[in-house]
Amino acid sequence: MSTMILRPKSPLRRHVTQSGAAPAAPTVTVPSWLRKAVEAAQTVEDATLATGAAIATLDAVVRRDEKWAGAWRQRLALAAAAATARHTGRVEDEAALRDSFLLTRPGDDVGPGGLLLLGWRRLAARPAEELLTKKSLAAVLEEFGFFARDGAAVSDLADALRRLATTEGAVGMLTGAYAAVEGHGLPRAMGPWLADALLAQRLGWSHAVPVLTSEPKGGESSSRARLPAGTPSAAASYPAKFLLAAQAHAALLAIDLSAELERRADRLLAVAPKLRAKGADTVVDRLLNDDALVASRGDKSTGMSDRGLRRLFDRLVELGAVRELSGRATFRIYGL
């Protein structure tokens, strides 16, 4: 079992009890007109407008930089990894992928599915400006099952992505990410990862948000004629209309998840002052920054024994602040 990696003690308790704090920003929700616009888009022009509005709403969530943003991104990374596994013919669902990560020791073989999760967790955790470096690309390509024989392929890919980021508009950048995958003979599942990284860098986000979790739906030829001028020809396999539709739908799902996790995080922060166990603040901080934690082992940094850690999670479940996610009697996993 993996030891829970915990951060230094945080001032969460002081934060939730301090008087005179500035009121929290209102929850970002998806307006009904935007849902209708995304569903009703029939042309590239319609899809472009709807996607722009969806991304702008998602941008509002990202820029709030809430305490639960880390958990949000990692929960999206888990969903992205499960979708990628399905599209590559694997059988692991979210629960199996979560187990492969949490129930192994650092450095152990997590299997092909677990490697996919590590790739998406990389996107969610690393600073956005570092995602498309040669070093980062080489690592994530291996996690997606592609092993470059030399550094030339990675270098060419990094150069192509740099050109996309500096010369293409939003639509060209999106289609170009998929074109780069085809043009370099990479696993098709890399397309969403690269598109998400490019979007984060274009919008100036500190961290990318895993949203494009699957390949677009629709015929390959239905929108070729509508691709914007200058779009690489290889992107014809991924018509702009369907890429935009996938991005818009994914953005709405991410916004909906943020509203759900915000409610759960507010509950966790509200009960945090009631926790008397030594190291409880550190555990709360970790819950706000990751998808889930395994309560199989204590950690010296918290001063909590295995039994004490399990009691703390039982107390949090009793207070309605966290959920047990595994459904097992042993090796239980907890998260928002």
Automatic annotation (TrEMBL):
InterPro entries reported for this sequence: DUF1403 (IPR009843)
Pfam families found in the cross-reference section: DUF1403
Stretches the record annotates as Disordered: 1-25
Name of the protein in its database record: DUF1403 family protein
